[in-house]
Amino acid sequence: MLRGVNERWDELAAAGDLFTCYSAALATWAAVEGGDWGRAINPGLTFTLAERGDVFGFAYFPADLRCRLGLRRAGAADVAAAERGVLAEIERRGRAIVAGDGLNLPWHPAHGRRHAPHWYVAVAADGGAEILDPFTAQNELGAQKPARLAVETLAPLLPALPPDDEVLRLREVLAFGDDTDPLPWQPFQWFVQEDPGSCREPEGHRGPAALRRLAAHFRERGQELEAYAQADDIWSVARHRAFLRRRAEAAGAAAWVEEHGAPLAARWGHVAPLLLQAILSLRAGRAATGSVAEVLDDLADREQAAAEGASQAGIELSRL
User: pTM for the complete prediction?
Assistant: First the structure.
């Protein structure tokens, strides 16, 4: 059962700094079966920004992804039923994605400290289950490194996010790129491979227009600390663009990478430090610069040029 991931764990772990926690779980889920995990999670230049009152919803994947993978969110009201459900999915399909909470995950830097959406994959192992999580990241709570660990019981790792944080809830609603709102919240959640139902395209700004809307947001509200509440969601776009660059390099699209992919990924790499700099300035009582808005406007132009360059070269970026 573990043959696929045992053979490919090193490549998953090596890509850990190109994943979000969602794409890491999806890649691992595909790798266990032996599929092309890189294609499964490559969004190309997809990005939709939905406006939901005072917050934004971020959709990074094509809206048909969940339907193509055949995944549906399942849930339970108590931990015993949840563990039975996850183990049943492992028995049927060889693996299961759990929609967990970093607060409860010992390998996560948020463990015991705060709520954080975090998906991971569980597979069968002698005497219990094995957790597979190739995600790598560094934040103010510390470092997370690729993790493989055997557990006798899944129960302590299964609680999902509470439903009271709108930013975190929207990450879950749009995690696959389709709009699953209203999300049927349950205290324990995982995914099963069966009829996924319909996959709705989220309404919102798309592609470069989404980035220009974000730039306008920071020009208008950039001196308010609350304006940076979704910095992690913006950081996720940078991860996806770095992954796209790596995927295009592997596919032999060298000219596109040199002209567009590499400069775009490098420019995206500047966004997280600028967001952090603005947050620290505001916390210290100083004014934030206008750099975040300026870079997002520049990225909108770069993404438009990258899309046009791929089209002219006959490259379908999301299928690399």
Answer: 0.96
